[in-house]
Write a structure and sequence with these properties.
Layout lengths: L6 H9 L5 H8 L3 H10 L7 E4 L2 E4 L1 H7 L11
Antiparallel strand pairs: 1-2
């Protein structure tokens, strides 16, 4: 899945709204399955994943910190 950041995703990041898995995947231009794999492999830290009322969301600040611009910057913070 290779897509550009949409205005909606950029606006959500600016407003600090939690992102859906689909939006998190769009942010990194990867598939939703890659987001799942990154969580399992520890590329994304557990605090990136939020459960709000039984719905999974992702903290945009953690996503930005962990994978901007390279995966290695997170280092299990």
């Amino acid at each position: 899945m290779k897509s550009q950041l949409t205005p909606r995703v950029l606006a959500q990041l600016a407003n600090s709204r939690p992102l859906t898995k689909k939006e998190a995947a769009q942010y990194y231009s990867v598939s939703e399955r890659t987001i799942d794999r990154w969580l399992l492999e520890g590329v994304l830290p557990p605090q990136a994943k939020l459960t709000i009322g039984g719905t999974i969301r992702f903290d945009p600040h953690v996503l930005e910190t962990c994978l901007k611009p390279a995966v290695s910057e997170c280092d299990n913070k």
